[in-house]
Write a structure and sequence with these properties.
852 residues, alpha/beta, 7-stranded mixed beta sheet, 6-stranded mixed beta sheet, binds adenosine-5'-diphosphate, binds magnesium ion
Length: 852
């Protein structure tokens, strides 16, 4: 137990998977936590300080399944292996426990096993560092080799974390919002964190074999420290083994469509509200056929572009594939069989490769070779992919010759290397197998010699090869001195025979030599692969890119999604657009009603009114989602779309109560509104749904109006503003760039029918009672509500009599507004300005019937 305590002392934050023979055992609190999390039996073993020691265990062969569950629940696991076998410990004359050591720390951000990773999602470890008041973020995925950094202002940290969505975050104590549970600190880890920016730069340069980090681009101090910390963490968790990582690249915001965390969540881009992928934009547009392709598609959707050239390249490439359907179909077939090259390379680089990882390289290379001739030259992205698809024909040939089909899961299973590849290995195997033949023949000899036809030679785990005979023959065989009775059984007995033991040894030795030779051959193959790691990684990237492009081509061909026309202006026009996710979710036969949307520069704000359930939120999101798709370079579900590239997209839909953070709906709504008003500009696009709902009607209405006015006058972005306050329609007269639309509703036999159609104009009423009736509120209650509503409407002032609207009308009717517009303060003397002010005031007072 002393050994356990010593190791636990070094890894207090991890569960110890303590190797004992064929099991990983857990003890004390580790056992209690794991037994509860895994739902396995908790037992006890011996006592410690008078109390029984809690214990549970998992078989080594199934460890990955249990690991996966523990990691998903946020545990970290230290794998403690036996560093010697019992025989060699005995030979060394050791007493006490076998030597053991931690060979790896398994944490959520440092996974490589297929069973622990989500195939279609990246798995990032992120590190955050601060230097001189600025933050730096570095993130890497050791399963695929991505390594990137970005400098960021503290205010933008959440947006950046939202984009990357790390599985684990190495960070000092700080506010991480919804990501807080993924934070890990380096305390208690034998990890050498970079002392300062200079040291961090030096370490990074050294790790990637450059004289200076500047060779890879410009990194802020905080980025360098974060990157070096992430590397140090990887080194600490992998116990020194270093994964294959590409050189760090500093990614700027430049060229990206900015989406803050709230917008990402509300648009459900990669994940739906419940955290799953089903129901997300990604799930709806994903026609990729490989895991690497799915990851790349997710990366495109998570970081849409603002670069016209890059977007045109993507569009041109999938259009080309769409226009050669035969090649695209063949491409799809080849990609479907292509394994996950990036992740296989990740395991190979860490010395964790099994035969199937090398087989994956072989099969990916075969897919690449099959695909290359399918691609017509002359399309930039396809040419680029084609150039990377055949990194080295010789490697393909030697892997094909070397690897057995099918590849066994583990190297220890033997038979990973095919016969005929390595003569030495073949010779050892022959020796092993010939001896087995000899034993088979020997069984016949003995049966005849002893006159026992039912005599069998069997292999026994402890005894080796034994002679087994039934009970009736036991006495007879005891007479032969060369046979030694080793074990009686219920219906017979087992004997050993000196010649058998000799053969047994010979087999064991030959088998051991064959296994050793097989490891050497395997190691040699791994070396060949690693020597080509860069071009192989590029080949994996090319396969992923082609998969995303064929997915886009299929969407366009199969569902008739169109190529959006992109420009560097402020246009926005969609003809017959559809909400991809809602459309896909509608029951078959109920058609989704397409809608146009046009926001011209002269009329860039849309006020959308309509009762609940009429389709306002759907329409709003649909337009935002089409922007994301268009700027990801993908086709869009519409007949036509023209888009002036958007620099920031804001979506505020249906304020959800953020109870977990202790903020009320209204507070959340206002914080989000503030963020839009501060950050949006003329190239931005904003959708606002039901702002002001979280407070009283008058408050809500006032705030909604104020926000709308600010968007109109100062922000000047393109925006769609949905509200059930149909009173806001009044504003269209005062705000020239605002136009009103409404969701069409029909009344039919006293029931409300939603047409889901956007039409010019305003909703006349809110149909609340109708919706309540639709929802199954008892008829008596609906009737009573109708009565109350009618009475209230009779007594109420018209909407325009609310102070707010009175003020709007007043300013307009007095002509003050027009006059103000004519004034040019820059060209006025102070005296002229003062007299203009007097004049305006006089007019207002006259209108109100008061003396000035
Ligand atoms: P609102 O925001 O006005 O309350 P929603 O946008 O939530 O309305 O839409 C309510 C429901 O109407 C949606 O869940 C969807 O099933 C249906 N719907 C919305 N828009 C359409 C459309 N264009 N075509 C068909 N059904 C639609
Ligand atoms: Mg709504």
């Amino acid at each position: 137990m002393a050994q356990w305590f010593a190791i636990k002392g070094e890894h207090p934050n991890a569960l110890l998977f303590f190797r004992m023979g064929d099991f990983y055992e857990l003890f004390f609190e580790d056992a209690q936590a794991a037994a509860a999390a895994l739902d396995i039996a908790l037992t006890a073993r011996g006592t410690h300080q008078g109390a029984p020691v809690a214990m549970c265990g998992v078989p080594v062969g199934q460890a990955e399944i249990y690991l996966a569950r523990l990691i998903r629940r946020g545990f970290r696991v230290a794998i403690v292996e036996q560093m010697e076998d019992p025989a060699s410990a005995k030979a060394r004359g050791a007493k006490g426990p076998l030597a053991r050591a931690v060979v790896r720390l398994v944490t959520p951000g440092t996974l490589t096993e297929e069973s622990l990773l989500e195939a279609g999602q990246p798995n990032f470890l992120a590190a955050i560092a601060e230097a001189g008041g600025r933050l730096g973020l570095a993130w890497l995925d050791i399963s695929t080799g991505i390594f990137e950094t970005q400098a960021c202002e503290p205010a933008n940290l959440m947006a950046l974390l939202g984009r990357i969505d790390p599985a684990e975050i190495l960070a000092p104590e700080m506010e991480l919002g919804p990501h807080a549970a993924r934070r890990v600190n380096a305390a208690g880890l034998a990890m050498r964190a970079p002392a300062n920016a200079a040291a961090a730069r030096r370490e990074l340069a050294q790790e990637f074999g450059a004289a200076s980090l500047d060779a890879f681009g410009t990194f802020s101090d905080a980025e360098a420290i974060a990157a070096a910390a992430a590397l140090a963490y990887v080194r600490a968790t992998q116990m020194g083994a270093m994964p294959r990582l590409s050189r760090p690249a500093s990614i700027g915001d430049a060229g990206l469509l900015l989406l803050d965390a709230a917008t990402r969540a509300s648009l459900e881009i990669l994940r739906a509200r419940n955290g799953g992928e089903a129901g997300s934009l990604l799930a709806t547009v994903k026609l990729t056929v490989s895991a690497a392709g799915a990851r790349k598609l997710a990366a495109w959707l998570a970081a849409p572009l603002t670069d016209l050239t890059a977007l045109a390249a993507r569009q041109t490439a999938w259009l080309a594939l769409r226009d050669m359907p035969d090649s695209a179909a063949k491409l799809r077939t080849a990609l479907r069989g292509a394994p996950d090259l990036a992740r296989a390379l990740g395991r190979i680089a860490l010395g964790r490769a099994g035969p199937r990882d090398l087989a994956a390289v072989r099969d990916a290379l075969a897919a690449g070779a099959a695909i290359a001739p399918l691609l017509l030259p002359g399309v930039a992205l396809l040419d680029q992919a084609a150039a990377a698809l055949i990194p080295d024909p010789e490697l393909t040939a030697s892997l094909t010759k070397a690897l057995a089909v099918p590849a066994p899961p583990r190297l220890d299973d033997g038979a990973a290397v095919a016969a005929g590849f390595d003569p030495e290995l073949d010779a050892e195997r022959r020796l092993r197998d010939d001896t087995r033949q000899v034993i088979a023949a020997f069984q016949n000899d003995l049966a005849q010699l002893y006159g026992v036809a039912s005599l069998k030679i069997r292999h026994h785990a402890q005894l080796g090869y034994v002679v087994e005979v039934p009970a009736a023959a036991v006495e007879k065989l005891r007479e032969y001195p060369e046979l030694i009775l080793r074990q009686g059984m219920a219906n017979g007995a087992r004997f050993t025979h000196p010649e058998l033991s000799a053969l047994d040894r010979k087999i064991a030795e030959a088998a051991a030599r064959a296994a050793a030779r097989e490891r050497v051959v395997f190691g040699w193959l791994v070396k060949q692969v690693m020597a080509l790691a860069e071009p192989l990684a590029a080949c994996g990237e090319a396969l992923a890119l082609l998969d995303v492009l064929q997915s886009a081509a299929s969407l366009s061909a199969g569902k008739g999604w169109c190529r959006p026309e992109l420009a560097n202006d402020e246009s926005f026009a969609i003809r017959a657009g559809r909400h991809p996710v809602v459309e896909a979710a509608l029951p078959a036969g109920t058609g989704f009603v397409p809608n146009h949307c046009e926001l011209s520069p002269q009329c860039r704000l849309m006020l959308l009114t309509g009762p609940n359930m009429a389709g306002k939120s759907t329409f709003l999101r649909q337009n935002a989602l089409l922007i994301i798709l268009a700027q990801a370079g993908l086709p869009v579900p519409a007949e036509a779309m023209r888009l002036g590239l958007v620099d920031r997209l804001f979506s505020r839909v249906g304020a959800a109560d953020d109870l977990a953070s202790g903020r009320s709906t209204f507070m959340v709504e206002m914080i989000e509104a503030a963020a839009i008003l501060h950050q949006a500009g003329p190239k931005s696009f904003v959708i606002v749904d039901e702002i002001g709902r979280g407070t009283g009607t008058r408050d809500g209405l006032a705030i909604a109006q104020a926000v709308l006015e600010e968007l109109h006058h100062n922000v000047r972005c393109r925006a769609i503003f949905a509200t059930h306050f149909h009173e806001l329609f009044m504003l269209t007269e005062a705000l020239p760039r605002l136009h009103a639309c409404t969701m069409r509703v029909k009344e039919w036999k006293g029931e409300v029918v939603f047409m889901h159609e956007v039409a010019p104009g305003a909703a006349q009423r809110s149909w609340g009672v109708h919706v309540a009736r639709l929802a199954g509120v008892p008829e008596s209650v609906a009737k009573r509500a109708e009565f109350l509503l009618n009475r209230a409407e009779r007594n109420a002032q018209p909407a325009a009599a609310l102070p707010l609207f009175a003020a709007v009308r007043e300013v307009r009717e007095t002509g003050i507004e027009a006059e103000l517009e004519r004034l040019d303060p820059d060209k006025m003397t102070p005296r002229e300005a003062l007299s203009a002010l007097y004049e305006l005031r006089t007019k207002l007072m006259a209108y109100r019937g008061k003396a000035s």
